[in-house]
Amino acid sequence: MKKVILQFRDVTYIYHTARGETTAAEKLSFAVEEGEFIAFIGPSGCGKTTLLSLAAGLLKPSEGAVDSGGVSFGYMLQKDELFPWRTIEKNIFLPLEIKKINTKENRERARSLAAKYGLAEFLQSYPAQLSGGMRQRAALIRTLATDPDVLLLDEPFSALDYQTRLNVTEDVSRIIRTEGKTALLITHDISEAISLADRVIVLSARPARVLASHELDFGTEQNPLKRRELNQFSAWFELLWKELNG
Q1: Which of 16-20, 82-86, 92-96 is predicted with the least confidence, judged by mean pLDDT?
Q2: How confident is the model at residue 132 (pLDDT cuts 50, 70, 90)?
Q3: pLDDT higher than threshold 80 for residue 25
């Protein structure tokens, strides 16, 4: 039995503004097991990004509790956010500098990750010299540089064109699964969720509540592009579409 490393227990979050209170999430309950890849889908503005901030401890619940047991988190955003004046190597080292763990050993680990996933020859290049897909790969290596336990992926492919997006999802899936990381993905794209995740959690319109949680039956097939070719892919798409639009 796998270890539960993150758990939401009846979590409600209320934003307080000059105009009053807005409930972003209400009575959210779910558990995340070590090594699991979970995708969250829901209507625009339902509070999906708030969920990631609650998971990482950047926000505190108004009610309920988030239990993370001291696990560490890495955040991957919608855009790569690489600094254009820094080389790819220096960008990858940035989290090490921020966390004051910029040791020779950690720099070598980051370089080895870059080499392992095809970026070795681009370490001295600048972001503008790389394609969008390669920049996003560099952003993921940067996130992995501090060896986080859980990766929080906030629509990390939304800024890419469709063809690049397909290729990058395959890259990201391979890297995350090879490194044995736990991942929480926020996405508006049902197909993306099905192709990447072990489990899909469907959220309601704001305030976000859990409408359904589905374990995906793709067996050992983890390649996102190959999943799209399987018969059950369309069945899952139809079910999730109905749940989101029902």
Answers
A1: 16-20
A2: confident
A3: yes
Q: Residues with Cβ < 8 Å from 67, sequence gap 6 or more? A: 6, 7, 9
Q: In whole angstroms, give the CA distance from residue 135 to residue 129.
A: 9
Q: What is the pLDDT of residue 93?
A: 96
**Amino acid identity for residue 145 in this structure:** A
DSSP 8-state symbol, 35: T
User: Do the beta carbons of residue 25 and residue 12 sit within 8 Å?
Assistant: yes
In contact, 149 and 73? CB cutoff 8 Å: yes
Q: Is the preceding omega at residue 207 within 30 degrees of 0, hence cis?
A: yes
Instruction: Indicate the pLDDT class of residue 157, thresholds 50, 70 and 90.
Output: confident
What are the residue boundaries of the structural domains of the chain, listed by start? 1-72+184-246
In CATH, what number does 1-72+184-246 get? 3.40.50.300
Residues whose CB falls within 8 Å of the CB of residue 232, separated by 6 or more in sequence, listed in order: 217, 218
Distance CA 110, CA 53 (A): 25
The token duo for 195 is 């192709």
Partnered with residue 66 across adjacent β-strands are 8
Classify residue 69 by burial, with Cβ atoms within 10 Å: 0-12, 13-18, 19+: exposed
pTM: 0.91
Contact 94, 142 (CB under 8 A): yes
